Amino acid sequence: MTARKPKAEHKPNGRPSPYSEKFDNMAYVACYRGGFSDKRLGLLFSVSEVTINAWKNKYPNFLMCIKKGKDDHDSLEIEKSLNKIARGFSYNETVKKPMIVRDQEGDAVLDNNGEVKTSLKVTKVTRKQVTPNERAIEFWLRNRQRERWPDKKDVALSGDVTINVLDNFK
Question: Strand, helix or coil at 20?
Fold first, then answer.
């Protein structure tokens, strides 16, 4: 009988993880500012979504930064947008038209391909108004003030109910 060799130290398979602690802050910013999903985070860090999930399990601070970034995005950025839509807003619309480029004599200038050269020129700036959105208002109130704006009303009936059957239908 031959003697067994002692087991060698276990070495992990595959290449080492490219994870770095600096990814924590990058993940927070990407989730907060960009609303990144785990799949998009994977693209940002050049790894798969499976690797992102493994990092979330292995590095608690990474997971916390992702959760906080997503929560801040939802509660700050999206609520701000919903509030704006619910209240209505105005903005400037700029219209640009292609204009023919002319030389000092007033002749059209040609580009290298022999086509008439054009440039975009601002022709009009208009103030536009977006009216408040009723669905956004309803959603906002039903979720922010549930007591005053419930989604449904419960109606309770009380008392005795009597059903009279006519002789013709017996």
Answer: coil
- CA dist 142 and 81 (Å) reads 17
Lookup: tokens for 146: 């549930």
Beta bridge partners of 97: 121
**Cα torsion angle, 46, 47, 52, 54, sign:** negative
Q: What is the pTM of this model?
A: 0.51
pLDDT in tens, 40-89: 999 999 999 999 999 999 999 999 999 999 999 988 888 888 889 999 99
| The two three-digit tokens of residue 134, written as one number | 């009723």
Contacts by residues 60-64 (CB-CB < 8 Å, ≥ 24 positions apart): 61/21, 61/24, 62/19, 62/23, 62/24, 62/27
CA dihedral angle for residue 84, residue 85, residue 90, residue 92, rounded to 10 degrees? 100
